[in-house]
Design goal:
single chain; 242 residues; alpha/beta; 3-stranded antiparallel sheet; 9 helices; 19% strand; binds ligand BV8; binds zinc ion
């Protein structure tokens, strides 16, 4: 029996499943991952730009990076991995998708039971009056950094930067589900960013199973019951013959 057949058998016998995704699930949609070779922008890496300090020092530069990402994401379409995860939500009664991605592609593929623990690139938050706005648009260069229509305060991307806490209500719901679900499927994450990377360990510790889909082994591989190495989109096509 191949690893994919084993995963198929395990997954279709579950009543509850958590799925944790990272940038790798959107790679086949043409979106650069953070730590892959295509992950740089003007020779910066995410950890230098996705921080409150970078934004304080140079809000225009940080917004140019986010606007550049918005442009790529708006041209991108969900791939079979996004649709396969949506299918899992349909067939497994107790289901939760936890994504580190801010690209909105899971929602575009139809996922509903989703928690975006690092926020969403198309939502802005005013640094002065806290007003949030969701709009799938690209700003014109002269609009950067954008200002609040309400109070003219500086707008920021409504995402979680390095050194910022995850929303505690959201993370509490994630942990509540992780502590009761039978298994977690980890797709396309290098599992180096915390606290997201700690979620599979909670599942494992209370006797749940851990399954992994990635191009290569990660830290999660050592606690995985099944690891499948390959492109997530292609693997989901084989899982569901999408
Ligand atoms: C917090 C949103 C505490 C923004 C992101 C030392 C110094 C400073 C901080 C720390 C430190 N050590 C630990 C920390 C904490 C830090 C952290 O973990 N840092 C890491 C880098 C060590 N974490 C934080 O700061 C978090 N907050 O700890 O707060 C706190 C508490 C109370 C009060 C105050 C503070 C916040 C972390 C969130 C950061 N925000 N993004 C944005 O997107 O712009 S992180 C960013 O990384 C993305 O969200 C991304 O999703 C996430 C994880 O990366 P991956 O998704 O895994 O992507 P990556 O490129 O790494 O890997 C892709 C994977 O896919 C690879 O494995 C590849 O093989 C695979 N792949 C590629 N193609 C495919 C594929 N797999 C399958 N198919 C394919 N086709
Ligand atoms: Zn405002």
């Amino acid at each position: 029996m191949t690893e994919i057949d084993k995963l198929k058998k395990e997954i279709f016998s579950l009543n509850s499943l958590c799925v944790l995704t990272g940038a790798g699930v959107s790679q086949e949609s043409g979106i650069p991952t953070f730590r892959g070779k295509d992950g740089l922008w003007r020779n910066y890496d995410a950890t230098q730009l996705a921080t409150p300090y970078a934004f304080q020092n140079n809000p225009k530069l940080v917004w140019e990076w986010y606007n550049w990402r918005r442009e790529i994401i708006l041209k991108a379409k969900p791939n079979p991995a996004h649709y396969g995860i949506k299918k899992l939500e349909e067939i497994i009664s107790d289901f939760l998708l936890v994504t580190q991605n801010v690209d909105d592609l899971h929602r575009e593929a139809g996922s509903n039971k989703i928690l975006e623990i690092h926020g969403n690139i198309f939502r802005t938050r005013c640094t002065k009056c806290n007003k949030k706005e969701f709009e799938k648009k690209i700003f014109k260069n002269e609009e950067l950094p954008p200002r609040c229509k309400n109070c003219n305060g500086l707008l920021r991307p409504d995402v979680v930067w390095f050194g910022e806490p995850i929303d505690e209500k959201i993370f509490a719901s994630v942990l509540e589900f992780a502590l009761k679900c039978e298994a977690i499927l980890v797709v396309g994450t290098s599992a180096v960013v915390y606290p997201a990377a700690s979620i599979p360990y909670y599942v494992k510790e209370k006797g749940g199973k851990v399954f992994e889909i990635n191009l290569e082994p990660t830290q999660i591989s050592e606690i995985s019951d099944i690891s499948i190495f390959g492109k997530a989109g292609e693997i989901f096509e084989k899982l569901f013959i999408l």
